[in-house]
Design brief:
single chain; about 130 residues; alpha/beta; Glutaredoxin; 5-stranded mixed β-sheet; globular
Length: about 130
Amino acid sequence: MWRNADTIERWVFGMLPSLVTSLGNDYWTTVLDSNEPWMVDFFAPWCGHCVQFSPALDGKVKLAKVDCDQWPGVCQGAQIQAYPTVRFYKGQQNGRRQDVWGIQIQTQDKDRIIQVVLSQLEQLHDEL
């Protein structure tokens, strides 16, 4: 059986306890009403896109995923139009619920996504 590094990495991370929260209808309160920053991956299992952000962002941002096949109403409400869609949510500002759009991350490159999130976190820290 043929294997490559990505396959082995997915298998290893699949065997470890996940740092990524699976969300459904609780997306609205868990993410949008949170004071903490979140990165959410809206996906469909048939899409084939699987990126592991957990090791690089552990302790810096909460991570979540929403299976749009299982939770179509959540993804429609979040106005997801393509898979995967990765969004960053800064956390509530002045007690106001976050915008459903968040900050859309316009790349599928794992290293670039991590760079964008870390940059957003730095800006957020500077604002405080």
